[in-house]
Amino acid sequence: MSTPRKRNRTKLIIYLFSFVIISAGVFFGVQFFTRTGFFKIPGVVYYDDSLSSEEIEIFKNIFSDDVILDKDVRISAKNILQLDSLKNNEHIYNIYVPVTDFYSSESNIATSSAEQVFDTSFQTENGFSLIPFDELDFTRKLLSINDNYYLDDFNSGAVFRVISFDSEKYDEEIEKLISKTFDKDFPKKDNVLSFIQTGVTALSRGMNRKLLEVGGDATFFSEKIGDFLSSFDLTHTSNESSFSDYASGSNICSDKRFIDTLEAIGLDIVELTGNHNQDCGDEAAMETIDTYLSSGIKIIGGGKTADEAKEPLNISEKNNNITMLAFNLSTGGATLDDTPGANQYNEAVAAEQIKTAKTNGDLVIVDIQYYECSAYASEYEDPICDYANSSAGDQIGFFRHLIDLGADVVVGTSAHQPQTFELYGDGVIYYGLGNLFFDQIWWPGTTRSLMLSHYVHNNKLLQTKIIPTVYDKNMQTDLMDAETTKWYIERLSKARP
Q: Do 408 and 296 sit in the same domain of this protein?
């Protein structure tokens, strides 16, 4: 016969057991219905049809069977022409740029969508191909898309392949898994150096007279192009005239107020290889150098002495290293002693300086003040000076020899009329840039120039964009319009060796 104490103990055990059973049922029931705990289903990776098979394989390797996700993730892709601010879960997978033949006069693609740019029939019809950015180099011409040039903007002018990862736990789970995949050194404003080279500048003679007519405001001559030239990281010109109190309407000397013209274009580098910098005497030449230096303008190809004149210009900006050399060859104005003047070309010195720069891994640009084409005096279009062999001596052979020595880019900075250009060996040659600023308004050819906009990334020359200019009867320089640019580039291209 059981006692009350035994019955109470039995009831307690039954109650406790029931409580455990009920609690366990509730515990596992909640997990079952909420798919948590023992009944949790791992997050699933969904691959959208917009992904390529190659992209899917890459992400399958990332989200392998060993990776257990808490939440589902859907991966998708899209191609866009305008890179606005990306969302936290969006990443650039690749950048594709349109290119065409180096010598082509085409410059732009008009399109309504990114998918059209990818279409091979559209590419064939418009004479271009689409390549990944990392395949871009100076041997092919980069085109704009809808008038947007990628290396000037970085947010347009290309097709951007963007991958999206939609997950409730993107920050906690996904980002750390994919970060290395999207850790790519794509170009941007802070790692691409834009360096624009311009041709002959001689702020003198008729420009001195015009300066008086406009009340002494030297920015009159640069007002149409100053903002454009100032937009580049570095701006160069080859100035052939020194500042002097004796500047007049008949000599190659510059009114001292013309420093305002150069500052208005954002001048960073002035080349002094010209044959007229001593026209106003050595004292004026030295004072001019002091004026440049006090204005923060670096000097290349000339100096107060022969030793100063031969010094290379080393440019180190945005993780890019450029060695710039500049020589005077047979046009006068060179110095061989302790007097000011241009850097006389010396084969042994040039070869050694180029070799040293290449050993250091620098990009090498060599400027040459060469003989001039003498066929300027024509009131009609005379294409003689377009050709590289229109000057005295073997211009083609000499410029190509500098490439053979290791130069990456060779530029002729003496021509008062633009000359042709060509790919040669492992480099590129621009035989003559023409006049950026001068008073030669009588002949069509001498009112024009070529500006070379170099784009350098990781010491690699991505592109050199040719930008023609023209000045009017007031000697105001402006960008050449698009239609004339196309005609002129085609004309010069056909004159190549």
A: yes
